[in-house]
Amino acid sequence: MRLIEYEGLRLFTEAGIPTPRYSVVDDPNQAVRAAEQISPPVVLKAQVLVGGRGKAGGVRVVEALQDVGKVAGEILGMEIRGERVKRLVVAEAVRHSEELYLSIIVDRTSNRHLILASRMGGVDVEELSKSHPEALVRAPIDPLIGLHDWQIRMLLAHLKLSSETAKQFQDIVKKLYSVYRQYYCDLAEINPLALTDDGRLVALDAKIILDDNAARLHGFKFAGEAGVESEAVRLGLNYVELDGDIGIICNGAGLTMATMDLVYTLGGRPGCFLDLGGGASAERVYTALKFLFNRPHVKLVFLNVLGGITRCDEVADGIVRAYDEFGGSKKIVVRLVGTREEEGRRILASRNIGYFTRMMEAAEAAVKQTS
Amino acid sequence: MAILVDRNTRVLVQGITGRQGSFHTEQMLRYGTRVVAGVTPGKGGSEVHGVPVYDSVEEAVRRHPEINASIIFVPAAGAVDACYEAIEAGIGLLVPITEGIPTHWTMQLVRYASLRGVRIIGPNTPGVISPGECKLGIMPGSVFTRGPVGIISRSGTLTYEIAQNLTEKGIGQSTCVGIGGDAIVGTGFIEILELMARDPDTRCVVLIGEIGGDAEERVAEYVVRENYPKPLVAYVAGRTAPPGKRMGHAGAIISLGVGDALTKMRRLREAGVRVAETPGEVAALVEEALRARQR
Questions:
Q1: Contact: A252, B104; criterion CB under 8 Å
Q2: Which of A167, A254, A299, B58 is the most buried (most CB within 10 A)?
Q3: Looking at chain B, which residue has its C-alpha nearest residue A51?
Q4: Do the Cβ atoms of B277 and A265 come within 8 Å?
Q5: Which pLDDT tens digit goes with each residue over B36-72?
Q6: Which A residues, 257 through 276, put their C-beta within 8 Å of a C-beta on chain B?
Q7: Which of these, A97, A37, A90, lies nearest to A62 by C-alpha position?
Q8: What Cα–Cα distance (Å) separates residue A244 from each residue in A15, A233, A270, A371, B225?
Q9: Sheet of strand B10-14: strand arrangement
Q10: How far is B31 from B29, CA to CA, in rounded Å?
């Protein structure tokens, strides 16, 4: 789960990482009041999860107080790559001469936490790692041992900061690591980490990605992903919305992805990824189907189940229930094999619901009916 | 012979009295797996499908010193704790089935297990099966048959789909290993490939990958570097997955420009691996690989 910037800034503030003075607002009047307190120039920043908000005009520096309301009004209500702007951060514009980069990530390859730092901050780290790989310094953290001073010394040896700035940097790394550990982050990033004209390091942005497993287990509450995907989460469904018209629903993430790919290969357009997980009950199948039947962009539902711990009779019961309720409102293609498949197919046959046994044949039928 | 599990595997089930633990204990017993004991703290002295239950792993191992593998059905909050307990009791192979363990916890567990010389398969895995010898997992035994093909996979149901296609074509499997769908897993593709390279029963290996991380890319490098001695067939799921979205498995996410399916497929092809475009093609490519080898 990716946090919105202001939530990340709040975690930084709590941990004692220096940030600009800022307020979170959701209308232009509040923005003006916030700007008055901070005193311009201020930066107005759209609080959205999609990338590229700067290029889209979602981040603007305002010099004069009388312009704040107008600019805030322009940004609020904007749509940035499909995401509506509902909140703004009004932040002190921090004069700075240099932008650094600092992050801590889970490195899957080495099974270590990894600190990444650079003097060339402010740009996208992916681009930086391609264009100037030598400018990006890495220090590993063994999960059994944790962060010690040597890793920071290793970073500082490359960064060549003045001794006063180096001391602040050391402090910020430790605090960022504590946020990263406390909230079980996949990523905790400060970009840019500004070096101000008067020699202070200040985090101008906060990008935090939480491990969904940890967030669920520890009950972390954040605004997080908005919209339809959060509704699916409330229903306990693994759902990702896509832009096609075939709603794909399977048991198991790998099979769901493979089914999406197969539909696409055959010339169809997947409209979603919906994974039922293992051992789905009739109730769960019904809930998932109902959810898909209510998604307007989905024209046809393609259910592909290979039952291991999932029982085909349970799946068939769920299909029948959804079918009774939504009948012919949407087409449905069913492929059903595995544990208790005879029972499952009997249930479907008793209601004249057709089914396939081969994944390829079912996918072909689904694509044919939507083209 | 097979790898990881065989006739000599003696199994402990941790979390045996839970719904999943008890159900799959019965399924494993039916398959012929030697499940000799179970553990659920506080439920010592009871039985599940005739299997004695103990309060601690230490006690189970003391009473049944032949135990050499543990399958873990403990929920995410306690699964790592259960693994540490099993490591301390000296069990050398752990299979945590559990989904939803925080990545930071798994990282620590995996590092510790490697220092202690303990092999972990998973977490978030369907387990391991050597058909006809031992099923240490939750996969439906009926789709697998004994034969020459090793399968290594990051997914569950997709593996059953492909194994079933192979079985229908009369091609059996030596050992099938679900390495797990999480971002961090105990044992990776390459370590299993090494075991399969040395296994006389395995004549061809099927890799089932998916988006996220660089495990498939590392396989491609490894295969070329080591001049891998057996033919490989691969399928990679998720070419239509959008970047930045987690596709069901915790590990299935394209992030920071790493982990898309097409790159993985291309790198594997460049390494000489036969790469299937659809799951249905895998069986035909395996047939071709086995025939080419016989010549």
A1: no
A2: A254
A3: B244
A4: yes
A5: 999 999 999 999 999 999 999 999 999 999 999 999 9
A6: 257-258, 260-262, 264-265, 270, 273, 275
A7: A90
A8: 43, 21, 5, 12, 41
A9: B47-48, B51-54, B34-39, B10-14, B69-72, B93-96, B119-120
A10: 5
Identity of the amino acid at B277: E
Topology classification of domain B10-120: Rossmann fold (3.40.50)
User: How confident is the model over A61-114, as pLDDT tens digits?
Assistant: 999 999 999 999 999 989 988 788 999 999 999 999 999 999 999 999 999 999
Residues of B in contact with A112 (CB under 8 A): 107
pLDDT value, residue A350: 93
**Contact status, residue B197 vs residue B223, Cβ threshold 8 Å:** no
User: Which of A180, A183, A309 to substitute to test the interface with B, most B CBs within 10 Å?
Assistant: A309
**With bands split at pLDDT 50, 70 and 90, how would you rate the model's confidence at A224?**
low
Query: Sign of the CA dihedral A52, A211, B137, B9?
Result: positive
| Closest to A275 (Cα-Cα) out of A304, A314, A296 | A304
Could you tell me the residue ranges of all domains in chain B?
A: 10-120, 139-294
Residue A225: pLDDT over 60: no
pLDDT at residue B233, as a whole number? 98
Whether B68 contacts chain A with CB within 8 A: no
B199: Cα separation from own chain's centroid: 16
Q: What is the ipTM of this complex?
A: 0.92
Taking the C-alpha atoms of residue A126 and residue A225, their distance in angstroms, rounded to an integer, is 23
DSSP SS3 for B233: strand
Check A264 against B245: CB less than 8 A apart.
no
Tens of pLDDT, residues A147-203: 999 999 999 999 999 999 999 999 999 999 999 999 999 999 999 999 998 899 999
| Domains parsed from chain A with CATH numbers | 21-92 (3.30.1490.20), 96-218 (3.30.470.20), 230-370 (3.40.50.261)
Are A237 and A290 within 8 A, CB to CB? Answer: no
Catalytic residue (choose from A5, A189, A341, A364): A189
Contact check, Cβ <8 Å, A250/B181: no
> So what's the pLDDT on residue A343?
95
Query: What topology is assigned to B139-294 in CATH?
Result: Rossmann fold (3.40.50)
**Which residue of chain A comes nearest to B153, CA vs CA?**
A254
pLDDT at residue A230 above 80? no
Identical fold at B10-120 and B139-294? yes
From the list B23, B22, B3, B38, the residue with the least C-alpha distance to B134 is B3
Structure tokens at A302: 């393609």
Out of A144, A181, A255, name the one closest to residue B158 (CB): A255
Residue-wise pLDDT for B245-261, tens only, equals 888 887 887 776 788 99
Contact between B214 and A108 using a beta-carbon 8 Å cutoff: yes
B140/A308 touch (CB, cutoff 8 Å), yes or no: yes
Looking at the partner chain, which of A125, A257, A338 has a beta carbon nearest the beta carbon of B210?
Answer: A257
A·B CB contacts under 8 A:
169
Q: Which residues of A touch B129 (CB under 8 A)?
A: none
